[in-house]
């Protein structure tokens, strides 16, 4: 039995690492070499990342393998271009004559003699076939390049095909294309790290984040245990998103450690982390919306059609965010619309509940003044309502501030492709702050002082009584009833005085 379990574990590991893996920092690319061409051509190497940032000790290895088939005509002269963002614009200009002059400069006059002032760094890819000479124009089935990058810089990569120097001698050859399989391996730290310069701090950042989120969850659980009898459904729901966030950080640490060690992307880890992160963001907005609606604070149930509206908004936001990555970036418009609508409703519901509580305070205060009602220890209905109003004032501020920060961070993310760790920090810090703010607003406390409210017995034949939970419309239609004592007030006062004298 133990051998069977071990065998199943090995099979699962092989499937996870080999079948469900893809390129991460070892990039695989189909390239087409053109034999017999008289014009230069350039092809962008499509990487899963936008580029790669080298540190002080970066290395590059390019290897291309072509099928063993007969190809007629001189082979192209291959150059790997490593371009910065500004240099890339010049290379991609549709001017073949300009590329031809660059090729002549590379082949005859050295690397920098006649090239434009701002041109990409050019690396010569050599034929590694044993039976092909370096100066030969014969077909080549294996190409190889190794290079060091001693200076820190962020590069994008292009493959430049130049006509073979002196191969035509005034005659025209028929062009033939040969498909090849190429792989590009990029590393830092003298070949010990597959992470880009902007990704290397991510491991440390995620380890710090797991400590922060673990501490927040620990404090929340301790508070929950201490006042568990005051916990309600909203309090339990607010625990889900931070717990999910903790799981996401653990998965991200495993994912980046795997990329750093192997240079490959574990596909199921990438999918799981992205889906859970999208669900966590949707859960955050839904929790803010439910709290703004007044659920478990000013009313025991969600009102009317909102039972169906909230799940629809949750699924719309989650689905659109997932489709941004796996379908098209145009779905970001649906995600933004969902967020705008959610925050709009949250702010509107917060304002509605604040207005409702203010109205209740005015009505209650007028009745207490009219009937000359006084409370023992100064704790009355007004203090209860003021505490609930403070909750919604703070919640409305949190929703408004986080919405503006979320919009700014989402916009900045499009300009931070070279600095993955900055992008991660700008997303994580606002989330930590908003969850901390929500935790402080909705934390459990000793609410017993608000449960027992004593009215000083008036020296009259009647009294005013507030009935809690009178019907399904509570507290919008709070009932106030007139009550009459079962025995004369004088007898009650005399009994209290006798009891006080006895205790003394």
Keywords:
504 residues, alpha+beta, Rhopdopsin 7-helix transmembrane proteins, 9-stranded antiparallel beta sheet, 12 helices, 13 strands, 51% helix, elongated, transmembrane helix, transmembrane, membrane, GPR107/GPR108-like
Overall geometric form: elongated
Give the N-terminus to C-terminus distance in angstroms. 79 Å
Q: By helix and strand content, what is the structural category? A: alpha+beta
Radius of gyration: 35 Å
One letter per element, helices H and strands E, the order comes to HEEEEEEHHEEEEHHEHHHHHHEEH
CATH topology of the largest domain: Rhopdopsin 7-helix transmembrane proteins
Low-pLDDT segments = 1-23
- Structurally, how many domains make up the residues? 3
Helix count from the secondary structure assignment:
12
Mean pLDDT: 78
Regarding quaternary structure, what we see is single chain
List the topology elements.
Blueprint: H1 2-19, E1 21-23, E2 26-35, E3 41-44, E4 52-54, E5 58-65, E6 77-83, H2 85-91, H3 96-108, E7 121-127, E8 142-149, E9 153-162, E10 176-187, H4 202-226, H5 233-262, E11 264-266, H6 267-293, H7 306-326, H8 332-371, H9 381-413, H10 420-441, H11 448-451, E12 463-467, E13 479-483, H12 489-503
Antiparallel strand pairs: 1-11, 2-10, 3-9, 4-9, 5-8, 5-10, 6-7, 6-9, 7-8, 12-13
Helix pairs in contact: 4-5, 4-10, 5-6, 6-7, 6-8, 7-8, 8-9, 9-10
